[in-house]
């Protein structure tokens, strides 16, 4: 085996075949492996292999990345953090492409510059603390300090890399586990009340997460009713779908006869391409009920799409998606964000993000007295605690309803008591 080139081969889990399974010639059977020779701590070159890759090209690319990570010394307890982080990044499996990209960004921008020269075996809690102290004082390109949530994500990347080093027996413990960072509170959506709108117009100040009132939402939907993606904006505003789920919705996922849609996949931008992936969790794979108005909108949209497909003929790229570009190709999530931002600017209403429509949809459902467990199922959360903690920013009128209901309960009890005790004792009740 050449030292500078990985050997790539295919294997499967079929028993009794000794790696010679005749079905390996089938494209969908088995997975690809790579094997490389790396310098071990003993000074001898040792065989290192990993598998589970979807293609030979992917396996070979990871093998080459691992060889590149070895430059400067062996991959082991005596290697530098830069070598180990690159080795780990090249071989980590079972993560989503966007997660891998986040790991790579953290390694490149933060972890290697701060810890890259430290030996893996010598990394201490003090080193990690010093890094996060420096990061906390760093400013983003917008002049703001790194958010607590960003620091927590960087720590999660470092912790995952060091956990793997512990599993490999290269270090005894993970110093990133003991680091205490500022709490990263989950942002709660704020409703665009008249006072907040006035403050925004005067100073530009806006909540981190904001939702429209029902009249504001109606005004926006009325203003975009002629937009080609109007059914998509409607679904986002009323049925709590994420932008990737909207972009990935196919006609085969719709059952307009029963008034339902299935969230079976989402589109994600990876390496400059749109790639379909299943939802993040089992709870994310869900069935969403549709009201009659939404069904009518989607039927009309289907009719318009079929007419456009007929008109374009061979030029139509029919991939079966509900929401498409003018040539029939699927829309990218980032494109939806861009288009929505333009529509909001044009409306003149206070700004919200496309993802904020998801918060607003839950708010409207709560205003319509939908039970929280039902909302949890529709939004695709595995835990009702997460739903309650994140999305229950209710509309102002619900607060007033709760206040009136509480007062009615107390006054009703007071009136009942007044019949049984001296009138003077409950005289205050008659003043209310």
Give me some keywords for this one.
single chain; 432 residues; mainly alpha; DNA polymerase, domain 1; hpI Integrase, Chain A; 4 domains; three-stranded antiparallel β-sheet; 47% helix; 11% strand
Count of discrete domains:
4
Our estimate of the beta-strand percent is 5-15%
- Based on the coordinates given, report the CATH architecture of the largest domain: Orthogonal Bundle
Mean of the pLDDT scores?
Answer: 82
Helix content: 40-55%
| Shape field | globular
Question: What is the N-to-C succession of helices and strands?
Answer: EEEHHHHHEHEHHHEEEEEHHHHHHH
Fold and architecture overview:
With 432 residues, this protein is mainly alpha-helical. It has 4 domains: 72 residues, no CATH class; 110 residues, Tyrosine recombinase, N-terminal domain (DNA polymerase, domain 1); 202 residues, hpI Integrase, Chain A; 35 residues. It is 47% helix and 11% strand. The strands form 4 sheets. The protein has a 3-stranded antiparallel sheet, with helices on one face. The protein has a 3-stranded antiparallel sheet with strand order 6-7-10. A two-stranded parallel sheet has the order 4-5. Helix 6 links the parallel strand 4 and strand 5. Helix 2 packs across helix 5 and helix 3 crosses helix 5. The mean pLDDT is 82.
């Amino acid at each position: 085996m050449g030292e500078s080139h990985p050997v790539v081969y295919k294997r499967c889990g079929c028993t009794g075949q000794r790696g010679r399974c005749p079905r390996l010639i089938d494209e969908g059977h088995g997975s690809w492996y790579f094997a490389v020779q790396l310098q071990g701590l003993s000074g001898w070159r040792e065989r290192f292999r990993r598998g589970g890759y979807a293609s030979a090209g992917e396996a070979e690319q990871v093998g080459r990345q691992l060889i590149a990570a070895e430059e400067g010394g062996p991959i082991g307890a005596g290697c530098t953090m830069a070598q180990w982080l690159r080795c780990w990044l090249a071989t980590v499996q079972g993560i989503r492409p966007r997660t891998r990209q986040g790991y790579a960004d953290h390694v490149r921008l933060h972890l290697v510059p701060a810890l890259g020269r430290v030996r893996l075996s010598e990394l201490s809690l003090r080193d990690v603390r010093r890094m996060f102290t420096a990061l906390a004082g760093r400013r983003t390109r917008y002049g703001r300090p790194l958010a607590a949530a960003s620091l927590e994500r960087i720590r999660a990347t470092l912790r995952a890399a060091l956990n793997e080093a512990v599993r490999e027996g290269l270090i005894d413990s993970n110093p990133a586990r003991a680091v205490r960072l500022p709490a990263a509170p989950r942002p709660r959506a704020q409703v665009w009340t008249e006072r907040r709108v006035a403050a925004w117009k005067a100073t530009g100040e806006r909540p981190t997460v904001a939702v429209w009132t029902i009249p504001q939402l109606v005004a926006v939907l009325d203003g975009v009713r002629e937009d080609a993606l109007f059914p998509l904006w409607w679904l986002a505003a009323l049925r709590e779908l994420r932008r990737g789920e909207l972009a990935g919705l196919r006609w085969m996922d719709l059952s307009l006869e029963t008034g339902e849609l299935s969230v079976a996949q989402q589109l994600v931008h990876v390496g400059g391409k749109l790639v379909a992936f299943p939802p993040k969790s089992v709870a994310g794979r869900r069935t969403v009920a549709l009201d009659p108005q939404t069904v009518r909108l989607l039927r009309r949209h289907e009719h318009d799409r079929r007419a456009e497909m007929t008109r374009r003929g061979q030029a139509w790229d029919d991939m079966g998606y509900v929401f498409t570009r003018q040539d029939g190709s699927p829309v990218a999530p980032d494109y939806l964000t861009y288009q929505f931002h333009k529509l909001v600017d044009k409306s003149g209403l206070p700004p919200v993000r496309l993802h904020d429509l998801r918060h607003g949809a839950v708010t409207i459902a709560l205003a319509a007295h939908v039970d929280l467990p039902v909302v949890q199922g529709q939004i695709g959360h595995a835990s009702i605690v997460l739903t309650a903690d994140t999305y229950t920013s209710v509309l102002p009128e619900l607060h007033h309803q709760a206040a009136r209901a509480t007062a009615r309960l107390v006054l009703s009890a007071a009136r009942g008591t007044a019949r049984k005790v001296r009138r003077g004792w409950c005289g205050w009740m008659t003043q209310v």
